[in-house]
Specification:
Number of strands: 18
Oligomer: single chain
Number of domains: 3
Distance between the termini: 46 Å
CATH architecture of the largest domain: 3-Layer(aba) Sandwich
Radius of gyration: 26 Å
Low-confidence stretches: 346-359
CATH topology of the largest domain: Rossmann fold
């Protein structure tokens, strides 16, 4: 069974929600890819999609330089769902009229369905109070004044007489709202209807089928040659290694560089999983002192990141060079990394300086194996569970590549690492004991570059400050601080001050992203 045999093409016009569209399609077990709106008709024909989704975007169709499609796209006989700007562009290109709305619609709005077409099958019944309409999410300043010939309106809002329309004969549908966002009630039903009722897709995209397909592909490509994979302790590199091992077994060697900036017990946990649970060839390199020497006196956070990343490359390169017959490098590249290089706005100027091990490639002349490059983060976790990996590894919160090095504000020393490691362990332990770990994006401790006066045992102290950070997020792009119970915060503070030598004050970070970031550096 070809898991890519039935696929949806998403054309990106720069919407902040484009990746959400792809995730919603994948949730229905249908494969999809995001490409820039201007990839060309020949490429679209070669892609051979079962359907096309036109994303939203920040432009108006009348703007100078607004992204435009060739009209011929709409005559290719491929079902189309146009969203927001996609709907306006469709109308403009096919002879309709688009105008600036007298009242812009941003946020929740009531949608009134006028036609139970295939697109809205099962949606109308979701409304308990029809006169109030269906709650949807709008984000536009223009609206459709006149539909193109052959189209009929199938829904309206108070501000948009044509909030959805269709040309059933040509299987072209358009909606002014965003069905991909969680704020739109029954948005998943709308997307599901497009995929199955209009495009005739089948749910072939599952993690079980993905494993079969990936393993076959890697075995054919790698043959009997060796593969080396860098392990960080994070979810992506762990799942990458286990999947490659499924394909080539002992041809894989994992190299784990302990840079001295890991959390309590992390190195031992990673080694236990790979060496003893999966019996994967595993090489651990203790390089903590080496990294600390490189970081001595360094304060600037970006310089820290680069030093840590570059030193990892050097250590990894040295160890990989000792292995024989290695021809491939396994990396945990995910689909968002791929999208970044082909997005509506063009190639990204800079990917995170600690992302993967990009600096290795020219010198080592290794061929890349990136089995996760088609997957989103949530799919990687599903894949890990399908591979039978321990839940504590699959569900672990994101941990930055530079590790504790960017959670120690100011210079990094062995003593400061030990202080932060001990405090961070208490934070995680208390969060887990409260049953909150899996309900938030990240929770951790930060060692601040200040000391404060305190009193312990009737004596004056002048010691360090620990900040506790706990945030909720969907994808890390935005985040809100978690309203932790006061008694939990109290236990954390009391334990850290009493159990971690060198700390006499604990504070809680209640800033959101934006304007702040999740990490402090």
């Amino acid at each position: 069974m070809d898991i890519h045999g039935e696929k949806i093409l998403i054309l990106d016009f720069g919407s902040q929600y484009t990746q959400l569209i792809a995730r919603r399609v994948r949730e229905q077990k249908v494969y999809c890819e995001i490409h820039p709106y201007n990839i060309g008709l020949d490429e679209i024909g070669d892609f051979n999609p079962k359907g096309i989704i036109l994303s939203g975007g920040p432009s108006s169709v009348y703007d100078t330089g607004a992204p435009i499609l060739p009209r011929e796209l709409f005559g290719m006989g491929i079902p189309i769902l146009a969203v927001c700007y996609g709907m306006q562009l469709l109308s403009y290109l096919l002879g309709g009229k688009v105008e600036e709305s007298s009242r812009r619609e941003y946020g929740s709005a009531a949608l009134f369905i006028d036609d139970d077409s295939d697109l809205f099958r099962g949606v109308r019944s979701a409304r308990s109070r029809p006169e109030r309409g269906l709650v949807v999410w709008m984000s536009h300043g223009d609206r459709i004044r006149k539909m193109p010939r052959g189209f009929v309106s199938i829904a309206h809002s108070d501000n948009s007489p044509v909030a959805a329309m269709k040309n059933e004969k040509r299987k072209i549908f358009a909606v002014q709202f965003h069905p991909e966002v969680a704020h739109t009630a029954k948005g998943a039903v709308v997307i599901r209807n497009f995929l199955f009722k209009i495009c005739g897709c089948r749910p072939l995209w599952t993690m079980r089928s993905f494993i079969r397909s990936s393993v076959e592909e890697m075995r054919a490509r790698i043959g009997r040659r060796g593969v080396v994979c860098g392990i960080s302790g994070g979810v992506d590199s762990a799942v990458t290694a286990v999947l490659i091992h499924e394909a080539v077994g002992d041809q894989l060697t994992c190299i784990f560089v302990d840079n001295g900036l890991l959390r309590t017990g992390e190195a031992a946990e990673v080694e236990e999983v790979f060496r003893n649970h999966y019996h994967i060839r595993f090489k651990k390199v203790d390089a903590g002192e080496r990294f600390l020497r490189r970081l001595k006196g360094v304060v600037d956070p970006e310089r820290k990141r680069k030093l840590i990343g570059n030193e990892f490359i050097r250590v990894f390169e040295e160890e990989a060079g000792k292995l024989k017959d290695v021809a491939f490098l396994g990396q945990g590249t995910l689909y968002p990394d791929v999208i970044e290089s082909v997005s509506f706005k063009g190639p990204s100027a800079t990917i995170k300086s600690h992302h993967n091990v990009g600096g290795l490639l020219k010198r080592m002349k290794l061929k890349l194996v990136e089995p996760l490059r088609e997957l989103f983060k949530d799919e990687v976790r599903l894949l890990g569970r399908e591979l039978g990996m321990p839940e504590e590894m699959i569900s672990r919160q994101p941990f930055p590549g530079p590790g504790l090095g960017i959670r120690i504000i100011n210079a990094v020393t062995a003593e400061r690492c030990e202080i932060l490691r001990a405090a961070d362990a208490i934070v995680l332990e208390e969060i887990k004991d409260a049953g909150l770990y899996a309900k938030m994006w990240q929770s951790f401790a930060v060692l601040l570059p200040v000391k404060t006066v305190g009193v312990m045992g009737d004596e004056r102290t002048y010691e360090n400050v620990i900040a506790v950070r706990a945030v909720s997020s969907v994808d890390g792009m935005t985040a809100d601080w978690v309203r932790l119970p006061y008694d939990l915060l109290g236990r954390m503070s009391s334990r850290i001050i009493n159990e971690v030598r060198g700390v006499n004050r604990v504070v809680y970070d209640i800033s959101t992203k934006p304007p702040s970031t999740i990490e402090w550096e």
